[in-house]
Design a protein that fits this description.
- Strands 1-3-4-5-6 form a 5-stranded mixed barrel. A 5-stranded parallel sheet has the order 8-9-12-7-13, with helices on both faces.
- With 790 residues, the protein is α/β, with parallel strands linked by helices.
- Strand 23, helix 26 and strand 24 form a beta-alpha-beta unit.
- Bound molecules: adenosine-5'-diphosphate (ADP) and magnesium ion.
- The site of magnesium ion has 4 residues, from helix 13.
């Protein structure tokens, strides 16, 4: 490097050249490498080298500041001597500094090309106190422990720790090794009392050990990462400690008073109250800031925040309740009537065992929002627990307090949110939880729902009983079959099968449109959606039993209108059917049926799935081969068997259909059911498979407006199937007017809304002949006149 200039005057004894550091804290007796690039800092180094003297290393408060003044520097820094130095190509000086002694910076001294400051040397106590020695002993042990837990730490480090005898030096050594922020290190540098400094370092080290242990424990136990909850807990605990050290939180006396006041206000039952107060005493005795103390404090807070107070008598006004339900939801008459009955019973016998209602139906039919409406109807708070994806009993019932990062389960969390124990609690998507290694959540749920047990529901975290008996529970599910049987047994199922097009339009007009308009900040007169446009959105851009997609599409249209108005290109927007394509793109659903069902070999079946009814195409084709039946489209075993039965049945009835036995030789038949990625199963596509095959071999297309469902027997009988209501609604949504159903399902027709029954044409099937006649037309039969297969 350049020869340092020697002409600078020597500084007085109590003045040193300062090098401000953006993010490095140097402790006495320790070595650190630094790199300096700012001109004043380089000048300071050059001075120190030339004068063979020490300089001051000090942290600047704002790491971004380029030329900090006295206010921008921390008050305490470290005197250092330069051990090595070299000049890098970019002009920076790289040096190794040896820390010597803490100094307090008193004032800046002007007149130098570098920062110079008047300082006060802060001497260390000569002989350490007994307390300091005891703390140092503990720190040495913990230090060795933490080093042993960290991968890739040089072994010498442990020896250095062991060999450092001075408690003050030991604290500084540990502080410099810790992976904490520079600002936190500075706090340690400024802590002049050895005992205090040791205590702070020990706390940080102890917490690090807990984190390491925990992560190792968890890593070993489940090979999973710290889950969010635990990570947040550890971070919060650290934060609290740091805040305390920085003096941010109020005095702890004040804190205990607040907790005690919260306990007074919480109206906890007396035996539990005594337990909480005992724990508060224990907390007062604990060392502040330890992980255990913060865990205990959190527990006490939870206890004070739960709605323990006995609820007032529930006053239900049936007329108001009915009016509220009516106002919130269109249609659903049967469901609303059942809810009102339920409330009437609750009113007359508030303490009796009311059944637990379970709304079952496809997504977007209003199950969750009905629950909210029930709460509104009786003027009580609503809390929702989502059970979708829950597979750990602890998620419902909590973890024991001894488990690090423990929290109450979601029942107790919902209770706190509701702030009352006589509100409405919705157990959403009960069909989506499952048992796992971590226990069966449905066992915990049973306890919640059982009137014998739920007056003393025990959350593992709280560890004390809580009375849930006044809570109104409402469950929801997409598919009843997926609800664990014991849970299902406790519930009264209310079906919500899905909406007809007409109902959807009403819902859209009364609710969805208004809501979306408000979301976009549009006034009623600014945007008009015509009837034709609305029906086109529902029919050509959505295919669902509920109204979620419909609401989303309406939202897109409204946003486009809002855009035009905001830009000033229009003051009123009228959206008609013809405008939709520009906003929503080409229709996604139109003509699907027409497109597919134009050729022989394709039939439209009806399926019943978790998302409601839907149409389903069965495609059959033949290629030259040797009589194989190829089945694709992720078909389950039962569905495959029904395809085989359909083919056998067709072969058996070949003569009546005017087909020759030779027609089946030297061909492979391929049956495919799109969409290929979705698994399908069940026997109810039998009729459609038979019709598709018959259409293929007789070379006659299936009537495009016909949809069909039904199981077939090898003798040609059509057997009843499930989900009639949902399937009929799906056919109607898809724009099909004729539905072929098993005659033995006739009794299920009364579930279908009257408007749909009137709009559709039903054909009742006793045998597959009936299906052929309706689907392929009379002309198929001209060769054989009737297919007397039975
Ligand atoms: N009959 C109805 N009347 C008014 N709004 C409805 C009706 N059915 C559904 N909705 C609305 O549709 C949206 C989706 O309903 P949601 O309760 O989330 O369905 P689910 O829980 O059954 O999946 C909600 O905003 C709801 O208010
Ligand atoms: Mg829902």
């Amino acid at each position: 490097m350049d020869e340092p200039r020697t002409s600078w005057p020597e500084l007085p004894d109590d003045v040193v050249a300062l090098v401000p550091m953006r993010n490095v804290v140097l402790f006495p007796h320790l070595l650190i490498p630094i790199a300096v690039g700012r001109p004043k800092s380089i000048a300071a180094m050059q001075h120190a080298l030339a004068a063979k003297t020490v300089l001051g290393i000090v942290l600047q408060k704002d790491p971004q500041a380029d030329d900090p003044g006295l206010d921008g520097l921390c008050q305490v820094g470290t005197l250092a001597s330069l051990a090595h130095h070299s000049r890098a190509e970019d002009g920076q000086i790289h040096a190794v500094c040896q820390g010597m002694q803490r100094v307090r910076i008193l004032a800046l001294v002007e007149g130098h090309p570098f920062l110079a400051a008047r300082i006060e040397r802060l001497d260390e106590p000569v002989s350490p106190s007994t307390e300091a020695q005891a703390l140092a002993l503990q720190l040495r042990e913990r230090g060795v422990e933490i080093l042993s837990m960290m991968p890739g730490v040089p072994a010498e480090l442990a020896h250095v720790l062991q060999a450092t005898r001075s408690p003050s030096q030991l604290a500084d050594l540990a502080a410099s090794l810790l992976d904490i922020e520079p600002a936190e290190k500075q706090v340690l540098l400024e802590t002049l009392s050895t005992e205090e400094r040791l205590t702070k370092v020990l706390q940080i080290v102890t917490q690090r050990i807990q984190v390491l242990r925990l992560s190792r424990e968890i890593g070993e136990r489940t090979k999973e990462q710290l889950d969010d909850r635990q990570r947040r807990f550890m971070l919060e605990a650290q934060l609290k400690t740091i805040q305390k050290e920085l003096g941010e939180s109020g005095g702890s006396g004040e804190e205990f008073e607040q907790l005690a006041a919260a306990i007074d206000a919480a109206k906890i039952p007396s035996d539990i109250d005594a337990q909480v107060r005992k724990e508060l005493k224990r907390l007062e005795r604990m060392q502040d800031g330890s992980g255990e103390a913060s865990g205990l404090r959190t527990w006490i807070e939870w206890m004070t925040e739960l709605p323990w107070a006995p609820p007032a008598a529930l006053s239900i006004d049936i007329a108001t309740a009915r009016a509220t339900l009516e106002a919130d939801h269109f249609g659903l008459e049967r469901v609303k009537r059942r809810i009102v009955e339920f409330l009437a019973v609750k009113k007359l016998n508030p303490l009796g065992r009311a059944p637990i209602l379970c709304f079952v139906g496809p997504p977007g039919v209003g199950k969750t929002s009905l629950g909210q409406s029930v709460a509104r109807a009786i003027g009580r708070p609503f809390a929702r627990i989502s059970l979708g994806g829950v597979h750990d009993e602890a998620e419902i019932r909590g973890h024991r307090r001894t488990y690090i990062g423990a929290m109450p389960g979601n029942i107790v969390q919902a209770l706190r949110k509701a702030g009352a124990r006589d509100g409405v609690m919705m157990l959403d998507e009960v069909d989506k939880m499952s048992a796992s290694l971590h226990g069966d959540p449905s066992a915990a749920l049973l306890e919640v729902l059982d009137p014998e047990q739920n007056s003393s529901f025990r959350d593992n975290y709280l560890g004390v009983p809580f009375d849930l008996s006044r809570m109104v529970f409402i469950a929801t599910a997409n598919v009843i079959d997926n609800i664990p049987l014991p849970v299902r047994d406790r519930m009264e199922v209310i079906d919500l099968p899905g909406y007809t097009l007409e109902e959807k339009l009403q819902i859209a007009r009364r609710y969805l449109e208004r809501r979306q308009r408000e979301t976009c900040g549009l006034r009623d007169d600014q945007c008009e959606l015509t009837d034709a446009a609305l029906s086109a959105i529902a029919a050509s851009y959505t295919r669902e039993a509920g109204v979620r997609q419909l609401e989303r599409e309406i939202g897109r249209v409204m946003r486009a209108a809002a855009m035009q108005i905001a830009e000033g290109s229009a003051t009123q927007v009228r959206i008609d059917e013809g405008d939709l394509e520009a906003v929503l793109g080409p229709p996604t659903m139109e003509h699907e049926v027409a497109l597919r069902v134009g050729l022989p070999g394709v039939a439209t079946g009806l399926a019943w799935t978790a998302v409601g009814g839907d149409i389903l195409f069965i495609e059959a084709t033949r290629v030259s081969g040797n009589g194989r039946l190829i089945l694709t489209g992720q078909l389950g075993d039962v569905m495959k068997e029904s395809a085989q039965a359909a083919l056998t049945l067709l072969k058996a009835s070949a003569p009546q259909l005017g087909l020759a036995a030779g027609d089946f030789e030297h061909v492979d038949v391929h049956v495919h059911v799109p969409a290929g990625a979705i698994p399908k199963d069940g026997p109810s596509a039998g009729v459609a498979m038979f019709v598709a095959l018959a259409s293929l071999f007789t070379d006659r297309p299936v009537r495009p407006e016909a949809a069909m469902t039904g199981e077939i027997s090898l003798r040609g009988l059509v057997l009843p199937v499930g989900g009639i209501k949902e399937k009929v609604l799906a056919a109607q949504r898809a724009g099909l007017h004729q539905v072929l159903l098993p005659a033995r399902n006739r009794k299920d027709l009364h579930d279908v809304p009257a408007s749909t029954r009137e709009a559709m044409h039903f054909v009742w099937l006793d045998t597959v002949d009936d299906a052929l006649k309706a689907a392929l037309g009379e002309r198929v039969g001209r060769h054989g006149h009737g297919f007397a297969l039975v």
